[in-house]
Amino acid sequence: MARGNRRHRPPWLSYTLVAIGGVLMALPFLDMISSSFKGSGEYGILPYHFLPDSFTWSNYAAAFDQLQLGRLFLNSVIVTLTVTAAVLVTSAMGGYALAKLRFRGRDVIFRFVLATMMLPPFLLLIPDFIIMLNWPLTGGNNILGQGGDGGMTTSIVSLMLPFLVSGFGIFLMRQFMIGVPDEMLEAARIDGAGEWRLFYNIVLPQTGPVAITLGLVTFVSQWNEYIWTSLIASTNPDLMTLPVGIQLLQSFIDPNRTTPIVMAGIIISTLPVLIIFLFFQRYYVRGVMLSGMK
């Protein structure tokens, strides 16, 4: 059949399907917002009411009180910002070394980085926890990591250490930096520029969109980290972050009474991620496109 005779799908049909898909994806989030304004015992009754009978802001005040949201929020901010900054720095420097430096064993190191991406994260939980328990000179441990009471698990640093370096981040930055012309770097070397200046003044400014993409992915992932944090918080409840604290309240208290409070806490915990994503959205889309082209 000739191309000119092909029947095309009406454009309104595509728009309708996209609109329906968008509404279906947004419906759970809208229900969460609506539920955060419901009164005690109003959630889960049949027939189900999407809108609350009477809007109340008390759930948000109760979230700060019962969830100790201030402390959980502070822990989440400290851990997430530290991990995100560390991943950006280590990924950029590691990516540059593997993309633009020539040294013996470079390919072996790159294969090792790729191998870390193939390991399930759950496989490392127990080894990481044992390392934290026996960390020398912390939590009462001696220089051999013995005799203490919790070791590194008593410190908020334990929430960050396993995530400070990302194999995916190094791989992503390396793949992008390969596209930076070597001739540009050689010309700068002839002019007397050192490796640090090449990295900081020439290569790094060109990685902006990809770095923002990596930062957003890392931020969202770390903000929502639950399993490792719940494991550490089992030894020190003061180290709980928002996901762990909200889930703990939901698990041990009557869900019909606390679900609206939990929903309010989830809304508050979602706002930073939503604001950051909306602010950097155009850079994120550009970074994904450039990463795919590379």
Automatic annotation (TrEMBL):
Compartmental location: Cell membrane
Main location: membrane
Keyword annotations of the record: Cell membrane, Membrane, Transmembrane, Transmembrane helix, Transport
Residue ranges crossing the lipid bilayer per the database entry: 12-30, 72-96, 108-135, 155-177, 198-220, 261-284
ABC transmembrane type-1 domain segment(s): 73-280
Record-linked CDD domains: TM_PBP2
Protein name: Sugar ABC transporter permease
Organism: Acrocarpospora macrocephala
